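Consider the tokenized backbone below.
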């Protein structure tokens, strides 16, 4: 967990390789749909700009990664904070994969 993100993931070696990502913001924390959508939009953009290294690593190893990012902050975060958290989360996720292609 990298505040304000919570990352849930599954590695799968039996299906075609690649990454699938999902994004969520809690209705309990953000009552208005516009606020939830804004949080998810920031998550998607931060992921889009930083995913290349992880995608290349997973593709090279021939595994599939299903990952879900959940925004857990109680207030709207600035984009810089979301970008930094996403960077840390993707680095931790990449480190979970062993060099031999099997998840830790």
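A designed sequence for it:
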């Amino acid at each position: 967990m990298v505040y304000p993100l919570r990352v849930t993931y599954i590695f799968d070696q039996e299906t075609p390789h690649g990454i699938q990502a999902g994004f969520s913001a809690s209705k309990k924390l953000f009552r208005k749909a516009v606020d939830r959508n804004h949080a998810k939009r920031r998550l998607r953009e931060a992921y889009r700009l930083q995913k290349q290294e992880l995608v290349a690593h997973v593709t090279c190893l021939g595994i599939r990664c299903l990952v879900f990012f959940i925004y857990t902050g109680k207030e709207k975060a600035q984009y810089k904070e979301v970008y930094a958290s996403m960077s840390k989360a993707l680095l931790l996720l990449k480190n979970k994969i062993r060099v031999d292609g099997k998840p830790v």
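Residues 45 and 63 are 24 Å apart (CA to CA).
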